[in-house]
Amino acid sequence: MTPAPSPDPDPAPSPSPSPSLSPSPSPSPSPPSDQEHVRDLLARAVRDVVPGPVPLAAVRRAGLARRRRRAAGLSALSVLGAAAAVAAVVVLTPVRPSPAGPAHAAAQPSTARTPSPPPSRTPPPTPPRAPDPSPVRVVAPGERVDAGQGYTVWLTEEGKHWNGPEEYENFRSAVDGNVDTSEPGVSHQSEGGPAGAFHSGLYYGTRTAGRVELTAPGGRTVLATLLELPGRPGWGVWYAHTGPGVGETAVTLYDRAGKRLAGLPA
């Protein structure tokens, strides 16, 4: 079967005759605006200006002047800081007066100074020496005292009592009127033999008896022992022993200061 022919497409329209075109007049240019006019004037002015030489010397001088001013400002600040530090040191540091110079010394009248004598070094005064403690032994009435070598001595208110190896008793009164207690004095009794002697006696008329001393013919001395009753009645008893061949002895009474008060020759 034969296919049917497809319909032709729409035929292209035939061109219509173009009307005759007459040349249109060209548009007239628009007047320039104010900005463009100013720019144009400036451009012309710039084109007409011839630049001069650069003032390098003036620029350098201006730069140096600025640097000097800056350096002067920094120096001033440094000086102010140093001055403040010096002022602080001056305030905190005590000022000591400087010694007078030659001119000042010349202006002052010269005065001779007499050197003062050195202080005397006098030793402090020695306090008065206290008297030695009493060498006297105080015994109770009737108290028996061993005098050595078989002898015994005791005191009563009436006077001195003693006995020896033979055990017989002796007595010497201190209140029978034979002893003057108003002034210092000493008595002496002795017994013994070639083997030695026992010496004793009274001392009286003083309350500061220091010692009773026996002196042999050859100059040998012997110290006696002193006995007193309580209350310092103004008298006491002394006794001592001498060796064989001593013979007779002198008796001397001294006070505590060493002053001789009374004595008996040999």
Summarize the structure.
By secondary structure, this protein is of the alpha+beta class.
Q: Could you explain the architecture of this structure?
A:
By secondary structure, this protein is an alpha+beta fold. The protein has a domain at 137-264: Immunoglobulin-like (Sandwich). The protein has helices at 34-48, 56-92, 102-107; strands at residues 137-138, 145-148, 151-156, 159-163, 169-173, 185-186, 189-193, 196-204, 209-215, 221-223, 225-228, 235-242, 250-255, 260-264. Strands 1, 6, 7, 8, 11 and 12 form a six-stranded mixed beta sheet that branches. 14% of the residues are buried.
Q: Give the radius of gyration.
A: 75 Å
Shape: rod-shaped
Number of helical elements: 3
Beta strands, count: 14
- In helices, the fraction of residues equals 10-25%
Work out the strand percent: 25-35%
Largest sheet: 6 strands, mixed
List keywords for this structure.
Immunoglobulin-like, six-stranded mixed β-sheet, single chain, 14 strands, alpha+beta, 266 residues, disordered N terminus, rod-shaped, four-stranded antiparallel β-sheet
Question: Mind sketching the topology for me?
Answer:
Elements: H1 34-48, H2 56-92, H3 102-107, E1 137-138, E2 145-148, E3 151-156, E4 159-163, E5 169-173, E6 185-186, E7 189-193, E8 196-204, E9 209-215, E10 221-223, E11 225-228, E12 235-242, E13 250-255, E14 260-264
Parallel strand pairs: 1-11
Antiparallel strand pairs: 2-3, 3-4, 4-5, 6-8, 7-8, 8-12, 9-10, 9-13, 11-12, 13-14
